[in-house]
């Protein structure tokens, strides 16, 4: 989709000087960035640079020590996020998946999604209809009766995304949803992400392998040691000496 043409430059989230330490570890260090409605924004950086902590702070898993996180509602209303618990942020439209998928074990794919849908719909009938619609939309009909724990890893990750959709998010944060996948599974997963974005859902795409984001993201932000290193179009960012240094320093392929 091309939401930026319809709605140029409308911010959905704004992170200003966000800071978080765990004891002596300064995980996120005065980090600032904006997320625009409808975009697929990449958040990249070497392992341990603070990406998951950033998502955890934005979704309320942890509270930030200082700085500001702002969320703009669909009507443009401004919300300062500060100590609102994760379920409340989810109700506001902020959803995420985890680096390691966390299915409701022993439930089928359908029931995993339905369980979340029940929380976000007025009746069970509506929840069922929404679950069916998500499964159909993502093309997961074949796996709907499979037990989630029996699914191969890539499908477990897709189910996690489908389940997050049941919360009717406006922004979805995907934390390393490609980790451990083969090249063809990565391609299929990127298609699922594009489909979700085509519904107007803003995506914050967290990844440490930079090449994976080049064809997906319109814009990327590079993090290093908790800080904002640089940002821009993926192809431009990848050429920057400071980015190459940050990655080669860790032995990663840029
Ligand atoms: P990334 O997702 O980029 O790999 P993380 O955000 O997971 O990085 O971690 C950033 C730093 O914060 C690391 O040094 C990590 O060990 C530390 N960290 C993250 N979460 C915690 C926690 N709950 N307690 C202590 N240290 C943490
Ligand atoms: Mg992480």
Task: Explain what this protein looks like in three dimensions.
This protein is an alpha/beta fold. The chain is 35% helix and 26% strand. Strands 6-7-8-3-9-10 form a 6-stranded mixed sheet, sandwiched between helices. Strands 2-1-4-5 form a 4-stranded antiparallel sheet, covered by helices on one side. Helix 4 (109-120) packs across helix 5 (124-138) and helix 6 runs parallel beside helix 7. The chain is globular and about 50 Å long. Residues 1-7 have low confidence and may be disordered. Bound molecules: adenosine-5'-diphosphate and magnesium ion. Residues 51-52, 99, 175-176 line the site of magnesium ion.
Indicate the overall shape: globular
In oligomeric terms, what are we looking at? Answer: single chain
Give the SSE order as H and E letters. HEEEHEEHEHHHEHEEEHH
Bound molecules: adenosine-5'-diphosphate, magnesium ion
Average pLDDT, rounded to a whole number, is: 91
Structural class: alpha/beta
Largest sheet: 6 strands, mixed
Measured between the Cα atoms of the first and last residue, the distance is 27 Å
Q: Biggest sheet: strands side by side, in what order?
A: 6-7-8-3-9-10
Report the sheet-strand fraction.
Answer: 25-35%
How many strands?
A: 10
Instruction: Summarize the amount of helix as a percent range.
Output: 25-40%
Roughly how many Å is the radius of gyration?
A: 18 Å
How many distinct helices? 9
Give start-end ranges of low-pLDDT stretches: 1-7
